[in-house]
């Protein structure tokens, strides 16, 4: 395996772009090479196979879509109530919207994992790790609601992100006077999170 970390990172990011644009079927080493603007055969020198590339894309996506520690620290200075949870949900929506390609690639990873048991295991572990981390963060920050609230928020936000980033017109006007996505984020929090 080739060892240039900058080249590897560029190839993984190129893989994210290909995955988001063409889906898992379009994710070939040749397509990654073309997206990265490198000679044909380069990606095959950096990854043992397609599953290796997908696992590295998974790792990269979690880094790309992670919250900014400075933003989190700033938010945690606020009172620990529903409005703070709502602010965290707005931050999540903003990050996914800013890196729409990354989030769409993450959705493609879910679909690919549903078809390949060897990928399903590692991807399930990483996604479950994210959920467990969110639950622990919520507990540690002293935010209102318990594990059930975090789990239901996770499911609601996953649905909102899916619709907003793939078929945004589905949600337009579904609740008259409620903006998409920000108004829906507010409604999710109001519906799920206790005030204190």
Architecture overview:
By secondary structure, the protein is an all-alpha fold. The chain is built from nine helices and no strands. The longest helix is centred in the middle third of the chain and has 25 residues, at 117-141. The termini are far apart. 27% of the residues are buried. The model has no long low-confidence stretch (mean pLDDT 96).
List keywords for this structure.
HTH-type_TetR-like_transc_reg, TetR_C_31, TetR/AcrR family transcriptional regulator, HTH_TetR, mainly alpha, 9 helices, 196 residues, DNA-binding
Low-confidence stretches: none
Radius of gyration: 19 Å
Helix/sheet category: mainly alpha
Instruction: Give the helix tally.
Output: 9
* DSSP helix fraction: over 70%
* Shape field: elongated
| Biggest sheet features | none
- Report the β-strand fraction as a percent range: under 5%
Please give the number of β-strands: 0
Mean of pLDDT: 96
Question: What letter string, H or E per element, gives the SSE order?
Answer: HHHHHHHHH
For the termini, the CA-CA separation is 53 Å
């Amino acid at each position: 395996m080739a060892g240039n970390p900058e080249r590897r990172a560029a190839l993984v990011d190129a893989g994210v772009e290909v995955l988001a644009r063409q889906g898992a079927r379009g994710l070939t080493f040749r397509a990654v090479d073309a997206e990265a603007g490198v000679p044909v055969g380069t990606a095959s020198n950096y990854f043992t196979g397609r599953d290796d590339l997908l696992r590295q894309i998974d790792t990269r996506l979690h880094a790309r879509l992670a919250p900014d520690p400075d933003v989190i620290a700033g938010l945690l200075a606020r009172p620990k109530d529903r409005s703070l949870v709502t602010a965290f949900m707005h931050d999540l929506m903003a990050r996914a919207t800013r890196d729409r390609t990354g989030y769409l690639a993450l959705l493609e990873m879910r679909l690919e994992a549903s078809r390949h048991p060897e990928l399903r295991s590692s991807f399930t572990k990483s996604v479950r790790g994210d959920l467990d981390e969110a639950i622990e963060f919520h507990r540690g920050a002293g935010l209102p609601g318990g594990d059930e609230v975090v789990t239901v928020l996770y499911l609601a936000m996953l649905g909102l992100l899916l619709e907003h980033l793939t078929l945004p017109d589905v949600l337009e006007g579904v609740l008259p006077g409620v903006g998409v996505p920000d108004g829906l984020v507010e409604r999710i929090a109001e519906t799920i999170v206790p005030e204190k």
